[in-house]
User: Which sequence fits this backbone?
């Protein structure tokens, strides 16, 4: 087994409250430890709450503002502007939010911040549902997935937030996950050296909400990419596409058959998902060919 | 003290001058009638080099308040302005602001709340935020708006307070009415209002976090401290008003008394109705009716002790309320507040609550005289009366 190590400054500490084996803790470790101590962050209600811990303790050595659910982007922008007014523009300002707080209730504020190109880093911990409130659907939940608010399976498709952000022409938006740590780490370093609204959407396979064994988050992360469900790519300035890792010819069934949230699926629904994944991939490849970052 | 200027200004522009003189560093503002000219004037000041602030033009009042809170926590003075629907859209974050102990100062142009739509003077928008932990001032003219913005900063930023403050004035009657306003010089204001540089702030050098999950006991303690801070406001706001007098010669008090010395009966009102009521008091006193006026300028914290002291031994108290709250014994918020303040008081007056001016309806001196005379004849009722 390959042992992966990077230079990191200890910001995220043991003693957080995530479920054992959660990919979010690992993702957070790399984000915070690469951004380092000269940073502040906002977190909305989400699994990031237990991850931070309860007063008077915190698992993070940087200042955290636990803001309201829908305000991560605007709260982060407020901090950045105030730091600028205090001549502390060098401080990194991060928003660490869930998919519910980003794709749904926080989208309006995020859109405004992106349109203004406010100088913040937005990390979306995308576990494809409202996990903190017990697994309800969000607009990031994929089609046919069971959640407690879609007991018969979700009818609509997962919202494509990368495209929404790209349409705002933000300097950087990318997908990543902890199954491809080197790729993830490269992306974090890259945005650390950039300015403006930067976003990474990190797929977080959720042990409890998706239903798989506690040691399988990394496997699930890799399968999401290998089956083409969650390709890893970047869009710079809204037009420059780079695909980092795409499907490797594995059928989606390899991914979804390992998750309790898809247990009720008919063969027909599985092929619908396969069709959707193929379509999405064809579209992304087309975009990447038309608007390649290396052109 | 030397005044820089006297100008003909609307309430909105006077408030903007007040804000400019406070030199806030971050200003997230979202437009809404009739507040918009406040934001426009401030942007103009920035262009003229009179201000050096970070302006944020977010997509909603909700995000404006979110940015106010986080910027204030980062240790800078912030200002914003809103009205009616905008204020109500902020509601969740108004609680957040006081809970986070951020001394934000906000101007609110009191406007009717929808549905149905209207643009008229009505206090319901801000009265329905009375439990959010904000200081609330109600002012009646442009000069008072300018002066109160600066008094509000001085009070809110006091380390024993650290609570947000809202200054409300009525749509159009104040927001768009021109009056001569004296504008103090920047040096004078600087001598009154020191820079905001809080010891605790959001800064990697300090490593402090704000607002994460607490236990029941910690939450209880937090709310208790918030409430205790509110209890200290009256004395601190009084001092801020007195210091303003030393500087400018203008003082308002937190409850203004008008011709109350030998008055058996007292009218209580907020905002512009007070001006009309003064004319009514003059007329009635010359007709031999012993009636005076008390204007409530600071509504939160409510001046309970002051009212008990002022109203003991009076005959009748007549409340004129421009806001309404259905289901509170007839619907007048001010009526409920005054009644509960007087509970158990020996020699308490009889209390009459009238909904007068709701929806921006015009209250004339004659109308006020009418209501006073009616109260002198009738027995008081526990319920407030629709009296326009
Ligand atoms: C205005 C508001 N509405 C609802 C909630 C309740 N709430 C807290 S967390 C949450 C879901 C969070 O989902 P997500 O953002 O995906 O984060 P996750 O828990 O999955 O990490 C909800 C609905 C809230 N805190 N505030
Ligand atoms: S609920 Fe899911 S995402 Fe949240 S901490 Fe547990 S495993 Fe991680
Ligand atoms: Mg989620």
Assistant:
């Amino acid at each position: 087994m390959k042992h992966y190590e990077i230079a990191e400054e200890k910001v995220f500490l043991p003693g957080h409250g995530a479920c054992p084996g959660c990919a979010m803790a690992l993702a957070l470790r790399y984000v915070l430890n690469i951004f380092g101590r000269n940073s502040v962050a906002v977190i909305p209600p989400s699994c990031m709450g237990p991850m931070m811990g309860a007063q008077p303790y915190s698992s993070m050595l940087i200042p955290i503002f636990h803001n309201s659910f829908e305000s991560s982007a605007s709260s982060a922008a407020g901090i950045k502007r105030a730091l600028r007014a205090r001549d502390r523009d060098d401080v990194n300002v991060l928003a660490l939010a869930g998919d519910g707080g980003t794709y749904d209730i926080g989208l309006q504020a995020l859109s405004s911040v992106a349109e203004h190109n406010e100088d913040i880093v937005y990390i979306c911990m995308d576990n494809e549902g409202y996990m903190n409130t017990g697994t309800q659907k969000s607009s990031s939940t994929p089609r046919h997935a069971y959640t407690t608010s879609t007991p018969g399976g979700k009818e609509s498709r997962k919202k494509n937030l990368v495209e929404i952000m790209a349409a705002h022409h933000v300097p950087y938006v990318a997908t990543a996950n902890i199954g491809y740590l080197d790729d993830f780490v490269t992306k974090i370093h890259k945005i650390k050296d950039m300015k403006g609204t930067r976003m990474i959407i990190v797929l977080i396979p959720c042990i409890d909400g998706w239903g798989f064994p506690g040691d399988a988050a990394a496997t699930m992360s890799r399968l999401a990419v290998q089956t083409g469900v969650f390709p890893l790519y970047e869009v710079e300035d809204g037009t420059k596409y780079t695909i980092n890792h795409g499907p490797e010819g594995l059928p989606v069934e390899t991914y979804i058959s390992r998750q309790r949230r898809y247990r009720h699926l008919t063969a027909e629904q599985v092929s619908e998902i396969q069709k959707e994944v193929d379509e999405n991939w064809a579209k992304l490849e087309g975009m990447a060919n038309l608007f390649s970052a290396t052109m | 003290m030397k005044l820089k200027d006297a100008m003909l200004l609307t309430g909105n522009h006077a408030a903007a001058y007040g804000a400019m003189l406070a030199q806030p560093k971050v200003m997230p503002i979202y437009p809404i009638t009739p507040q918009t000219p406040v934001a426009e004037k401030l942007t103009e000041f920035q262009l003229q080099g009179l201000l050096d602030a970070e302006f944020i033009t977010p997509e909603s009042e909700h995000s404006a308040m979110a940015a106010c809170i986080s910027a204030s926590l980062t240790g800078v003075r912030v200002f914003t302005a809103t009205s009616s629907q905008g204020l109500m859209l902020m509601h969740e974050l108004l609680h957040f602001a006081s809970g986070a102990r951020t001394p934000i100062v906000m101007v609110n142009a009191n406007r009717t709340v929808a549905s149905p739509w209207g643009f008229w003077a009505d206090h319901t928008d801000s009265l329905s935020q009375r439990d959010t932990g904000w200081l609330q001032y109600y002012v009646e003219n442009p000069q008072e708006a300018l002066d109160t913005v600066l008094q509000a900063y001085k009070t809110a930023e006091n380390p024993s307070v650290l609570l947000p403050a809202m200054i409300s004035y009525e749509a159009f009657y104040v927001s768009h009415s021109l009056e001569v306003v004296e504008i103090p010089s920047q040096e004078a204001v600087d001598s009154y209002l020191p820079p905001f540089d809080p010891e605790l702030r959001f800064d990697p050098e300090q490593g402090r976090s704000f607002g994460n999950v607490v236990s029941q006991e910690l939450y209880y303690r937090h709310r208790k401290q918030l409430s205790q801070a509110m209890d200290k406001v009256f004395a601190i706001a009084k001092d801020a008003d007195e210091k303003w007098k030393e500087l400018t010669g203008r003082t308002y008090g937190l409850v203004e008394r008008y011709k109350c010395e030998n008055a058996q009966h007292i009218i209580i009102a907020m905002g512009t109705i007070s001006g009309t009521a003064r004319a009514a008091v003059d007329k009635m006193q010359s007709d031999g009716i012993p009636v005076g006026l008390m204007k409530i300028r600071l509504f939160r914290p409510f001046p309970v002790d002051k009212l008990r002291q002022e109203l003991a031994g009076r005959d009748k108290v007549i409340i004129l309320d421009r806001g309404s709250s259905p289901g509170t014994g007839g619907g007048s918020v001010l009526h409920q507040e005054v009644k509960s303040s007087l509970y158990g008081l020996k020699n308490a007056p009889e209390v009459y609550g009238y909904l007068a001016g709701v929806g921006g309806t015009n209250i004339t001196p004659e109308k006020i005289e009418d209501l006073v005379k009616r109260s002198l004849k009738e027995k008081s009722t526990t319920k407030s009366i629709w009296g326009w």
